[in-house]
Amino acid sequence: MGNDFPVIVAGGGPVGLTTALDLVSRGIRVLVLERNPTTTRHPKMDVTNGRSMEHFRRLGVAERIRDKAVPREHCMDVSWVTRLSEWELARFKYPNVHEWREHIRQHNDGSQPLEPNMRLSQVVLEPELRDILEASPLAEVRFGWAFEDFTQDEDGVTVAALEVATGRRQEIRCALLAGCDGGASAVRQKLGFELNGAFNVARVFMTHFHSPAKEFLQTFGVVWHYQTPDGATLIAQDDKEIWTLHVMLPPGT
Q1: How far, in Å, are 47, 111, 216 from residue 76 at the CA level?
Q2: What is the pLDDT of residues 66-114, one digit of tens each?
Q3: Would you tell me which of 83, 84, 121, 182 could form a disulfide with 43, CB atoms 3.0–4.6 Å apart?
Q4: Domains delineated in the chain
């Protein structure tokens, strides 16, 4: 029995899309299956660390992604305030991309990453990775298709996929199946691997909103996070008009 794709990637988030991009860079055809109808609408992350940026640099897309991120000259400071309308108590200063690059250049002794980290919401990152993949003849990205099951034999893997909107099912052959479908990974569960570690360690109410009122929302200047003593966090997603507010919920709620 032949294989339709050398590799199928289950999961079209940052990990799955980056895995597919790496495979394409090596000349390997890949199919990405993502159960959601499109890229995420929720800001699940707001920073990409230096190690991930090293991978994007190796893949030749680091600067293209940075062009979509918070401007390189903006800092990554974290400010502790009593209230946005009151006083700043302390500020943890973190360099911007240009400052980090100069620090890396001055300490080129193997102790530094090759790339600074980057302020970028997952809402922005996923569409950019998708667009890069869809421009390649080696990649096929199917949103709205859920991984359901797989069977393995000596010649490869048969993946059972479901088109969520229609209920249509399809069996697709591959040589390798990559499970990049998150902490609740269906691939992991089908393989019988347990997930170690704690979950539900805190409950947070998240509000994602647009507002141009920077005179209030950035009272103490450009920062990445504003923190308050009662556990509230205001995250500047783009330093323009997109914000995320996290408020800790009382235990038991």
Answers
A1: 9, 21, 19
A2: 999 999 999 999 999 998 889 999 999 999 999 999 999 999 998 999 9
A3: 121
A4: 5-46+121-191 (3.50.50.60), 71-115+199-248 (3.30.9.10)
